């Protein structure tokens, strides 16, 4: 069998101070990842697996009580990865006086899971807004 | 409690600063406090409860509104110096640090951090492989639900039960470090110290266990997590002329205070058509409720001695010795084969010595010679196989004879299967190496390194692994400063191993893969195809997930064509293989590389961008034992 993972990550950021009392920052991060197992295959033997719709009674009247290798062959799909994640952070801070300041930050996270299995679909989108005041002495 | 400790520390520092004797002209108190709050516009669950993608370590997004508090304080007054930082965002997201110095005689440092880690919830839905139709009777005239009841006919089946399907799992980890150092003014050569570290893991996680014989019934339960680790480390160091000696003692205690989980397993199922049946189970529902998923309490004591001798400005010798004993505290009770108790605390001893010689021959050439030896010795364990006679209620109409225990079932004396398990840890490890750095000319430096590692395992035959492994690692690298704007670093590492760690009987003979299993027989129940002859005994091939040859290439360049632009390119390629295994070679093919660009048009503007590519490919032989009932 072969297991392969591949990921691309892009980042970008900017920090600006257009005014003496004003600071602005912006950060972006995007990641996309894939992973899969290939060349994992078991041969098929005749079973009477009614869940899979197999009826081998004409070949083997005893229909042995075994599950089918089709279940094992499905294992290769359990490790599949296919996700995209975008994170954005933006912030502005302004110094009111020599010792007092105000700031606002915005956070955005979006995670898309296109190969959910064991832990279920992990899709998440979160936006948060933070406000703060600083006092220096 | 840590918040209180930090506050007390700050108050003590401020009180000291306020004392008349402590007041001095140079008193400086400066800092910053932050008061804020965060509003989460969307909650964490977009599509499904328990989703953790992208917010695995973010606890604040669970709530719509959280406070965000911060402080940074610095105080200098006479002989007192205090620095402290604090950040509180949520009950599960806190970070504090503080350092206090009194006349440079007493130094105290502390830090605390706490965060939450969301864990996944395995619905276990992939563990459903059987021929039975859940809604109606299947091929055997049974539904899967009947497999757990004693007296039913056994059959090959894997099925699952998640007893807490709606629970979400997370563990909060916290670590608190404290260190006190005392410099005795009358004996400046001597320093005394005491460090303490406390780590806690608290929360809820998923525990799994499985019944055997009748069916593989995998069951999941919610399990409380409450683990505490404490390290106590007194230490002393002495510096006499060119010789420095440091001694420390570590006493570690690990306690799992989580509530015990217990499980009554599925019943042993006796095939009703057989005239005799040999019971091979170690436990089943007749054993009653049994504990599972436990972590034993343990302790560890370590003595460490280090020495450094500055022979002259060009030559330095360092040496070290460490002895440790790790003890499993849960094995000292009366004998219990399930819990591994055998009347004696299990112990693992490790002794190691290290030495290194550093020499700078010229301003352009220096080298290190190093070596180490470690021996590990673990206790043997006597394993008393539970071959008790089980009384089973047979299926109605069965003609089976009385059930028999394991030993008498094979016509053997009781206790025949008992054995002493020797420790797989027992080994001696020797390493030796030499490295050198040579500045050939201005802007060009070469680095070379060679290391030999030899492992001798005492009980290799019992564990079917190589008794000896020898590894050679060659590393060469070069730094080239082409001009003031361009720097280049190239490196290559070659790793060779004789008898890399492997499992000697891991897989079926690859050339007849699958042939060891003949498929279903003509009889309804053909137990001649049992695990031992068809699965375990058929495994004769050696496999490993470690290479015996590995090549690794690294390259990195930084280019700053002008003052406002900085660029770096980097790449790593690794090609590893193991051709000593049976079947096709184990291979790894990994590449990662990227670029970073920073643009600084002015002091008030900084732009950055980056890209990274990662590609990792493994190739191996996979051998899965198909459950045959």
Q: How would you sum up this structure in a few lines?
A:
The complex is a heterodimer of chains A (137) and B (629). Chain A is mainly β.
Question: Please, could you describe this protein's structure?
Answer:
The complex is a heterodimer of chains A (137) and B (629). Chain A is mainly beta and 137 residues long. Chain A has one domain. Helices cover 6% and strands 56% of the residues of chain A. Chain A has 2 helices and 5 strands. In chain A, a hairpin with a 2-residue loop joins strand 1 and strand 2. The longest helix of chain A has 4 residues. Chain B has a 22-stranded mixed β-sheet that branches. Chain B is mainly beta. Chain B is 5% helix and 54% strand. The chains are: A mainly beta (137), B mainly beta (629). Chains A and B meet through strand 1, strand 3, strand 4 and strand 5 of A and strand 1 and strand 28 of B. Strand 5 of chain A pairs antiparallel with strand 1 of chain B.
The most extensive interface, with participating residues per chain, is: A-B, 72 and 82 residues
**Beta-sheet strand percentage of chain A?**
over 45%
Total strand count of chain B, please?
A: 28
In angstroms, what is the radius of gyration of chain A? 27 Å
Integer count of domains of chain A: 1
Largest sheet of chain B: 22 strands, mixed
Q: State the oligomer.
A: heterodimer
Rg of chain B to the nearest angstrom?
32 Å
The termini of chain A sit apart by 63 Å
Number of helices of chain A: 2
């Amino acid at each position: 069998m072969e297991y392969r993972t591949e990921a691309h990550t892009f980042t970008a950021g900017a920090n600006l101070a257009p005014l003496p009392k004003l600071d602005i920052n912006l950060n972006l991060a995007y990641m996309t990842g894939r992973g899969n197992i290939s060349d994992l295959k078991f041969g098929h033997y005749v079973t009477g697996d009614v869940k899979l719709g197999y009826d081998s009674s004409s070949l083997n009247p005893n229909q042995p009580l075994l599950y089918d290798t089709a279940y094992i062959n499905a294992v290769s799909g359990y490790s599949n990865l296919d996700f995209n994640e975008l994170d954005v952070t933006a912030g502005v801070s302004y110094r009111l006086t020599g010792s007092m300041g105000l700031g606002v930050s915005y956070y955005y996270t979006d995670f898309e899971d296109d190969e959910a299995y064991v832990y279920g679909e992990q899709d998440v989108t979160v936006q948060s807004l933070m406000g703060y005041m600083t006092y220096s002495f | 409690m840590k918040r209180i400790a930090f506050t007390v520390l700050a108050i003590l520092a401020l009180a000291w600063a306020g004392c008349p004797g402590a007041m001095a002209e140079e008193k400086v108190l400066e800092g910053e406090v932050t008061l804020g709050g965060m509003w989460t516009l969307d909650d964490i669950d977009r599509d499904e409860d328990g989703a953790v993608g992208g917010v695995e370590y973010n606890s604040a997004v669970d709530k719509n509104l959280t406070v965000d508090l911060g402080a940074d304080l610095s105080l200098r007054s006479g002989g007192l110096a205090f620095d402290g930082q604090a950040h509180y965002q949520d009950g599960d997201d806190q970070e504090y640090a503080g350092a206090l110095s009194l006349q440079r005689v007493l130094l105290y440092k502390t830090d605390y951090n706490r965060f939450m880690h969301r864990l996944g919830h395995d619905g276990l839905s992939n563990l459903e492989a059987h021929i039975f139709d859940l809604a109606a009777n299947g091929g055997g005239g049974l539904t899967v639900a009947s497999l757990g009841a004693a007296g039913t006919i056994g059959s090959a089946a894997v099925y699952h039960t998640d007893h807490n399907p709606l629970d979400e799992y997370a563990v909060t980890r916290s670590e608190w470090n404290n260190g006190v150092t005392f410099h005795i003014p009358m004996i400046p050569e001597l320093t005394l110290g005491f460090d303490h570290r406390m780590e806690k893991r608290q929360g809820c996680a998923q525990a799994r266990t499985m019944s055997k014989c009748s069916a593989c019934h995998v069951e999941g339960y919610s399990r409380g997590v409450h683990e505490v680790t404490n390290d106590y480390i007194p230490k002393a160091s002495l510096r006499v002329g060119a010789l420095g000696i440091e001694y420390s003692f570590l006493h570690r205690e690990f306690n799992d205070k989580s509530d015990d989980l217990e499980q009554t397993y599925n019943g042993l199922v006796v095939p009703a058509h057989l005239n005799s049946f040999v019971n091979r189970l170690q436990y089943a529902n007749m054993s009653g409720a049994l504990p599972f998923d436990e972590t034993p309490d343990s302790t560890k004591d370590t003595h460490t001695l280090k020495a450094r001798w500055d022979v002259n400005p060009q030559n330095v010798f360092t040496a070290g010795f460490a002895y440790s004993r790790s003890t499993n505290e849960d094995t000292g009770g009366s004998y219990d084969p399930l819990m591994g108790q055998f009347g004696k605390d299990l112990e693992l001893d490790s002794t190691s010595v290290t030495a290194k010689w550093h020499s700078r021959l010229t301003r352009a050439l220096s080298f290190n010679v190093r070596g180490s030896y470690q021996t590990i010795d673990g206790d043997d364990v006597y394993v008393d196989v539970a071959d008790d006679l089980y009384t089973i209620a047979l299926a109605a109409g069965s003609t089976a004879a009385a059930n028999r225990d394991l030993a008498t079932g094979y016509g053997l004396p009781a206790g025949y299967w008992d054995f002493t398990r020797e420790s797989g840890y027992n080994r001696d490890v020797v390493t030796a190496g030499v490295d050198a750095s040579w500045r050939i000319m201005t802007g060009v430096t070469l680095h070379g390194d060679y290391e030999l590692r030899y492992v001798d395992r005492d009980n290799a035959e019992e564990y079917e692994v190589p008794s000896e492994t020898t590894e050679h690692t060659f590393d060469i690298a070069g730094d080239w400063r082409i001009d003031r704007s361009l720097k280049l670093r190239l490196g290559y590492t070659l790793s060779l191993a004789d008898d890399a760690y492997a499992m000697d009987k891991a897989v079926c003979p690859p050339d007849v893969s699958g042939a060891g299993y003949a498929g279903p027989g003509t009889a309804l129940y053909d137990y001649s195809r049992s695990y031992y002859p068809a699965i375990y005994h058929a495994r004769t091939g050696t496999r490993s997930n470690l290479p015996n040859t590995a090549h690794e290439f690294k390259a990195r360049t930084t280019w700053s064509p002008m003052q406002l632009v900085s660029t770096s390119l980097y790449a790593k390629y690794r090609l590893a293989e193991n051709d000593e295994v049976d079947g096709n070679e184990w291979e790894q093919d990994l590449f990662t590389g990227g670029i970073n660009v920073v643009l600084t048009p002015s002091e008030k503007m900084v732009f950055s961008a980056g890209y990274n590519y990662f590609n990792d490919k493994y190739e191996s032989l996979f051998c899965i034992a198909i459950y045959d009932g």
